[in-house]
Amino acid sequence: MRDYPGFATSGFGGVAWVALTAMLCACGSGSSGGSSTGTVVPVQPGDPGNPNGKCPIPAEAMLEDTSSSTTVVGNGTAASCTADAFVAAVAAGGIISFNCGSDVATITLTKPAKVFNDKGPKIVIDGGGKVILSGGGTTRILYMNTCDEKQVWTSAHCDNQSDPQLTVQNLTFANGNSKSDTQYAGGGAIYASGGRLKVINSRFLNNVCADTGPDVGGGAIRAFEQYNNLPVYVVNSTFGGTDGAGNSGSNGGALSSIGVSWTVLNSMFSYNLAVGNGGNPAQSGTPGGGSGGAIYNDGDKMTLSLCGTRIEYNQVKAYGSAIFFVTNDHTGNITIDSSTITSNLGGSWYPTYPQISCFDDTPITVTSSTIQ
């Protein structure tokens, strides 16, 4: 599904830096969070997200109301917040909150929590800023797939159904690992196919997926088949953030998808790694992969919108040290507003902007942003 020029890979480093501050025409029809109506939700010091991000958040991307929880995990102590209780809560669906005591609690899973498709329409998981969901370095943390019969088929069109609508908010996802899932190897922390996914006020640290492969990725998140091609919203969230805390995968150190649109607002991507080698399709003698240090978007009819977002210190071995964006039918576009893309390493094939690999006919609208 790639069909891009077979430029030679360059390994880590070696990119020619081009300082570029772009002040171009206004963003196109509703693609950018910066041009949408909404409310500015500032990132406070110590919170996830980009503290310099000031873009308004549209109503549909705001926090979900959890005042009437369906399930509360825990009874006031960290010990009561068990992996089994969390897995059961996700299986039951509804609005999930936590009561794990006054300190930050870590819940370490030995198997992924799985969303059942008949438990929607909305499934909300809210950690209140005090819960770390850990895969313990051995398992993915969260799985949703509307076309997986084991999770209950609820529609004759499982590839395009409106729910479940999964929201994760005020959480940390750490040490997820999807390498052992040979069927769905992407998405070290979250694999979400079908329905809708929304991520708010959350951190993703040290999550990993398969190291090689031309079309697998998403150290933190792998997404497919969002309803009616509505975007995945990522709001006020951090992927990596400090040296040694980044996420990694064959492609898309943080985010990876096929045929999915994304709107990323006031977020931070740093120190994530695309560790595959050989690109897509894989060059002869290579296992493939290594594109999209922070973000890997492939497929048809998709858009990527960044506003108030910082992407820095991510690395690749193939293409797109910050962003890889290839629409095979040459549709789709990228909008970048009030954002900074800087100091990402490696790669080649940058027809328009440094650190962004795409077809040379892909429209990229950049306003009030720095790419260098």
Can you describe this structure?
- The protein has 372 residues and is mainly beta.
- It has one domain (20-371).
- Helices cover 3% and strands 32% of the residues.
- The model is unreliable at 1-36 (pLDDT under 50).
Provide a quick synopsis of the model:
The chain has one helix at residues 83-92, and strands spanning 20-22, 39-40, 56-57, 71-73, 94-98, 105-108, 113-114, 122-126, 131-134, 142-145, 165-169, 172-174, 190-193, 196-200, 203-205, 221-224, 232-235, 238-240, 248-249, 255-258, 262-265, 268-270, 273-274, 295-299, 303-307, 310-312, 315-316, 323-327, 333-337, 340-342, 356-358, 364-367, 369-371.
Strand order of the largest sheet: 1-33-30-26-22-18-15-12-9-6
Global shape: globular
Q: Provide the residue-averaged pLDDT.
A: 90
Which secondary-structure class do the elements indicate? mainly beta
Distance between the termini: 29 Å
Largest beta sheet, briefly? 10 strands, mixed
Radius of gyration: 19 Å
Number of strands: 33
Count the helices. How many? 1
Task: List strands and helices in order, with pairings.
Elements (H helix, E strand, L loop, with lengths): L19 E3 L16 E2 L15 E2 L13 E3 L9 H10 L1 E5 L6 E4 L4 E2 L7 E5 L4 E4 L7 E4 L19 E5 L2 E3 L15 E4 L2 E5 L2 E3 L15 E4 L7 E4 L2 E3 L7 E2 L5 E4 L3 E4 L2 E3 L2 E2 L20 E5 L3 E5 L2 E3 L2 E2 L6 E5 L5 E5 L2 E3 L13 E3 L5 E4 L1 E3 L1
Parallel strand pairs: 4-5, 5-8, 6-9, 7-10, 8-11, 9-12, 10-13, 11-14, 12-15, 13-16, 14-17, 15-18, 16-20, 17-21, 18-22, 19-23, 20-24, 21-25, 22-26, 23-27, 24-28, 25-29, 26-30, 28-31, 29-32, 30-33
Antiparallel strand pairs: 1-33, 2-3
